[in-house]
Structure formats: structure tokens, C-alpha cells
Amino acid sequence: MYTTVLQPEPERWDAFVSQHPRSHFLQISAWGDFKSDFGWMPQRVALADGDGKLVAGAQILYRALPFRLGKLAYIPFGPVIDWGNSSLVRALFKLLDRTARQSGAVFMKLEPGYDVNVDTLKGMRCRPSPQTVQPPRTLILDIRNEEAALQAMNQGTRRNIRKSEKFEIEVRQGNREDVSSFTQLLQTTSQRQGFGVHVPAYYEGIYDRFIAQAAPIKANLLMASYPTEDGTRRDLSGVVVFVLGQQAWYLYGASSDEERQRMASFGVQWAAIQWARQQGAKRYDMYGVPDRDPMTLEALFEQEHEGLWGVYRFKRGWGGQVVRTVGAWDRVYQPPLYWAYRAYLMFRGDEE
What we know:
Layout: E1 3-6, H1 10-19, H2 29-35, E2 41-48, E3 54-64, E4 71-76, H3 86-102, E5 105-111, H4 118-123, E6 127-129, E7 137-142, H5 146-152, H6 155-166, E8 170-173, H7 178-193, H8 200-211, E9 218-227, E10 233-244, E11 247-255, H9 264-278, E12 283-285, H10 294-300, H11 309-315, E13 321-324, E14 328-332, H12 335-348
Parallel strand pairs: 4-5, 11-12
Antiparallel strand pairs: 1-2, 2-3, 3-4, 5-14, 6-14, 7-12, 7-13, 8-9, 9-10, 10-11
């Protein structure tokens, strides 16, 4: 028998998530609070055992659907649960359904992450969704040993790291004032690579909530620059990295169109990997490559240029393993409104 815990205290919830084998920074309470500044409403629900210990739960993010259709309930990289425990899964989904319905959700979108049996999801009446929020495919580096991590890279990446040192690239931990420089670099990268970025206030919030506070998530803004002849420095690249437990995520990266021969993006990325290792991370998630199988990725990366293909050419050089989540799954509560929303997405071209 499990006890329902509605809106557990942040410290209690974060301790549970941080220690769970399926921990992810998107399930930490501070991430939900951060997203509340940008149109989402967070809600955390959990189940506890007879001793009062949390054993399963989810941070749900709610957002209004267009045309007053209702609300979307979204669980990124969750629920946090042992998917092999069928009775626990059933109990938690019963709680999630009740909570989402009471909040007016038309449907719940889950992105459970890796190593989840899709038959379990189908058995819980979840349907695969073509609309994902988090990138379903990524590259994960093994960074337990620095020398082994270097050897896993391709020769060009190792050479470019050395070039960044040769061309006097200096990497520093960014401060609050550096966020402005980083967002300017992001705009340049967005225009070059053809993907969207958030408004500057979003990255300012990332700094204030995670980099400046660092509990329980550790985060860092690293900036790469070179000294100019007039004694100032010019920023050429930057990265934002998160660490929770033994996992690190390279969440955002940006680089200038100028002085690209200095290979600043390689210098700052290597510094980020080293920083993540110092925080105890053993795995480094490059967070997003095109959603194609490894053979197709290797066959097409020199030909394709849109979306994530440009960043894949950079990321593949760092070695690592291409892995895929089980994608997005929808649990529908109000079918007419759900299909109206799906029709709207198709009209916009957001679904294939």
C-alpha cells in the first residue's frame, strides 16, 4: 500500500530525485520553478511507502493549449519510477491521471527517457506521439577517465583542442554580466545553424536559479575568449553545462562567426567536460543530435545542413555513443479536444 504525497517539500522531492537511478535535472523542483516564469505551472506528486519514503513520483508541467482548448500536462524525463515494478507503475499512473484531470488537462505528454519497455507504456494506454519536446536522440560520452575520453575523440577534435591553446584561447567561468555576451553569441549561432533560441531573459534565469545557487543542480557558464591588441578580450564561444549526481548535460552552446581558426568552441567544450568530471560526473550528454539511426547519421552528416545536422558534425568528433529515448507518449483524457489540437499542429506543419 502506498501513500499519496501531493506537492512534497522541495528538499524532500529533490533528495528523492537526486538519489534515484533515473534522476534527471528536468525533474528537480528548481527547474519547475524556473519554468513557471515562462508560462508553465509546475506540480509535483509522489507515492511513499509504509515508512514515509518516497518511492515514485513526477514533476508535471502544465501549459494552456491554444484556442482555449484546455491544458497540456507534460512530464519531461519522468515519471521517476522503477518501470519494472508493475504495481507501483499502476498506482502512480492512477495518481497522475487523477491529478491531471483535476487540473483540466486534455492530455498528458510523457517523455520517460531511456530503457523503458514500450509495452508497459502501451499497457498504460499511452500512445506514441510524433511531437517531442526534448531531443529523443543524443550522444553520451564516458568521461570517467580523462585520458580515455581524449582517446575516444577523433583526431580532428583533439587537434582542434590543441589549436585553441595555441591560438591563445582563454576559458573562464562566466559571471552574471557574461550572460549578455553569451546570448549574443547564441543569436549568431541560431542564424548560422538554423535553430531557434529563447529570449535573453531565459538564459538570465538559468544563471540566477542554477549557476548562482548550485543546489542540488550544479551548473556553469564557461566563456572562451582571446586577448586583443588593445588589451581587451573578445568572446568567441560559450557553453552552459548542468551536473546532477554522476550525469552531466551540455545544454546550450554558442560560438561567433569571427576568428573561427582559433577553435574556441573546442577549447571551451573540453573545459566544460573537465569541469563536469571535477563535479563527479561520469557521463556527459551532448543533448541532441538528429533523430536518425547511427548508420544514417554517419552517411548523411556531410550532406545535411538544417536543424541539428550542423551541431552533429561538431558533436560526433567527441566520441561517445549514440542513444535514443523511447520518445514522447500521450495519455489522452479528452479525445475530441486532443484531436483538435493534433489537427492544429498538422496545420502548422509541426507534425509529419
